[in-house]
Amino acid sequence: MLAWLSALFMLLGSIVTFIAALGVLRLPDFFMRMHAATKAGVVGPSLLLIGAGFHEPSWGTWIKILLTVLFLLTTTPIAAHLLGKAGFLGGVSLWKRTVRNDLDDVLPTRVFLETDASVSGRNTEADMMTGSSETPHKR
Amino acid sequence: MIDIIFSATVQISKFLLFSSMILVCIRIARGPHAADRVVALDMLCLLGVGVTALAAIANGSMAFIDVALGIALIGFLATVAFAAFIERGTTSNGED
Q1: Is B10 helix (H, G, I), strand (E, B) or coil?
Q2: How distant is the Cα of B59 from the closest Cα of chain A, in angstroms?
Q3: Engineered SS bond to B52: which of A30, A86, A113, B68, CB 3.0-4.6 Å?
Q4: Structural element, H or E, at residue A25
Q5: Crossing angle of helices B34-59 and A2-26, rounded to 10°
Q6: How far apart are alpha carbons A108 and A89 in whole angstroms?
Q7: In this structure, are residues A9 and B53 in contact, taking their beta carbons and an 8 Å threshold?
Q8: Is the dihedral of CA A10, A13, A14, A15 positive or negative?
Q9: DSSP string of A106-130?
Q10: How confident is the model at residue A78 (pLDDT cuts 50, 70, 90)?
Q11: The pLDDT of residue B72 is above 80
Q12: Greatest Cα-to-Cα distance within chain B, rounded to the nearest angstrom
């Protein structure tokens, strides 16, 4: 009975994880990709961990698994929030059929300076250092 | 009966997890912005947690659960650090 449960949770977890990875690859926008990676990306490994708990059930295993699932559920929204704010400030392009953008007049959109050595040559990093040291960021 | 189904499930889960790793790596190589790459890297860390749980099931040794906890911790710290880096590396449109 426990082996059946373990196999069921393992299959469910890997299918949800595959759907999440498919969403990360295929969705058209940065925020949609982050939505796929955050929600389904937490549920899939959590289901796999619960399946591992049903495989060899004991108190120590279950406590570690519940701690890991709780940690994932706590930290992934925080990381996604920080990353979404950084991406919006860094000027990711929204989907071209986006209807409304409520953050448009709240947060300023800036440009992320990518250090692309093949385009700008060797002094990109020096320019970025001097630029960031001379002009403090407007917050 | 259950042995055959169980090993088949392990194989199917391995296939799904590693193909999703390949898909996420394609997004890392293709992402137009740096934030897209960081999202894909976060997803790759979560996939590492899943693969470690699958290794715990397939090998029958529950010591892999500790590894899953460690990978989750490191992935969170890496994502937060990359987010701070992206936010610090931006300049306003009027300044530069």
Answers
A1: helix
A2: 10
A3: B68
A4: helix A2-26
A5: 160
A6: 7
A7: no
A8: positive
A9: TS--EEE----HHHH-TTHHHHHHH
A10: very high
A11: yes
A12: 69
Please name which of A92, A136, A133 lies closest in space to residue A114, comparing C-alpha atoms.
A92
Residues A109 and A107: their CA atoms lie apart, in Å, by 6
In terms of Cα–Cα distance, which of A55, A58, A61 is closest to A2?
A55
Report ipTM for this prediction.
Answer: 0.90
Contacts of B80 in chain A (CB under 8 A): 78-79, 82
Q: pTM of the full predicted structure?
A: 0.82
Helix (H, G, I), strand (E, B) or coil at A97: coil
Q: A63 to chain B nearest CA, in Å?
A: 10
Residue in B19, B38, B37, B5 with CA at minimum distance from that of residue A18? B19
Contact A9, A51 (CB under 8 A): yes
Q: How far apart are CA B9 and CA B68, in angstroms?
A: 20
Chain A positions in Cβ-Cβ contact with residue B58 (cut-off 8 Å)? none
Evaluate if residue B65 carries a pLDDT over 50: yes
Burial label, A128 (beta-carbon count in 10 A; 0-12, 13-18, 19+):
middle
Q: How far apart are CA B36 and CA A27, in angstroms?
A: 11
Q: Amino acid identity of B83?
A: A
DSSP single-letter state for residue A95: P
Per-residue pLDDT, B92: 59
Q: For residue A83, which amino acid is it? A: L
DSSP H helices in A56-111: 59-89
Cβ-contact B75, B40 below 8 angstroms: no
Under 8 Å between Cβ of A77 and A34: no
Question: Do the Cβ atoms of A128 and B89 come within 8 Å?
Answer: yes
